[in-house]
Amino acid sequence: MKPSPAALSPLLKSDAQGLILAQLFMNPSDGYSISDLARFAKVSVPTAMREVDRLLDSRLVTQKTFGRARLIQVNSKHLLHDAIKQIVSYSYGPLAVLPSALYSVDGLERAFIYGPYAAHLRHELGPDLHEVDLLLVGYMNRIEASKAAERVEGYLGRAVNVQFVGASEWQKGETDFVKEVQSRPLVELELCT
């Protein structure tokens, strides 16, 4: 299956490449297996391997080998590191940093990116991506959740606008806001550690 073209940056060739770069560049101290990167980018392992091999050839990433396993990590000393990180942060960065920032928020059941960012990711044209619209579903401490989003703002260099909806309100889908959000493109975040 051929990866879809990059929806969020004309400088990247595919969403798979953008997501793999985001996972590596937005979490520079972490190392990832090819399987981890494939799962995050929602592509096959061979597709992820080809992307990683291209990054290795250009020395943008390094690898450590443990038997047959390869652990991939960003090369922070590469001359293009900062420029690529800025491009990736603007485009696919929210998908790489929001899940880990939100996973510890007690009572959070689901998290979605909606609005122009989600529309662009679904290959719909829209306004420029100056901010990220984030919808949090569940019964959580809203101050704690807002602080998590604020920390991400500093890392992404753009605003993260948080809206809250109770789990039953989301499930019923009866309010005007929920109906509107559910009728438009949504990107569900996989809340993880």
What does this structure look like?
The protein is α+β, with helices and mostly antiparallel strands and about 190 residues long. The chain has 2 domains: about 15-90, Arc Repressor Mutant, subunit A, CATH 1.10.10; about 95-190, Beta Polymerase, domain 2 (2-Layer Sandwich). It has helices spanning about 15-25, 35-40, 45-55, 80-90, 95-100, 115-120, 140-155, 165-170, 175-185; strands at about 30-35, 60-65, 70-75, 110-115, 130-140, 160-165, 185-190. Strands 6-5-4-7 form a 4-stranded mixed sheet. It has a 3-stranded antiparallel sheet with strand order 1-3-2. Strand 2 (about 60-65) and strand 3 form a beta hairpin. Helix 1 (about 15-25) crosses helix 2 (about 35-40). The longest helix has 15 residues, at about 140-155.
Number of helices: 9
The CATH topology of the largest domain is given as: Beta Polymerase, domain 2
Alpha carbon gap, first and last residue: 29 Å
Secondary-structure element order, as H and E? Answer: HEHHEEHHEHEHEHHE
List the helices and strands and how they pair.
Elements: H1 15-26, E1 32-33, H2 34-41, H3 45-57, E2 61-66, E3 69-74, H4 81-91, H5 93-102, E4 108-114, H6 116-121, E5 131-138, H7 142-156, E6 159-165, H8 167-172, H9 176-183, E7 187-188
Parallel strand pairs: 5-6
Antiparallel strand pairs: 1-3, 2-3, 4-5, 4-7
Which characteristics define this entry?
193 residues; alpha+beta; Arc Repressor Mutant, subunit A; Beta Polymerase, domain 2; 2 domains; four-stranded mixed sheet; three-stranded antiparallel sheet; globular; WH_DNA-bd_sf
Offer a concise description of the structure:
By secondary structure, this protein is of the alpha+beta class.
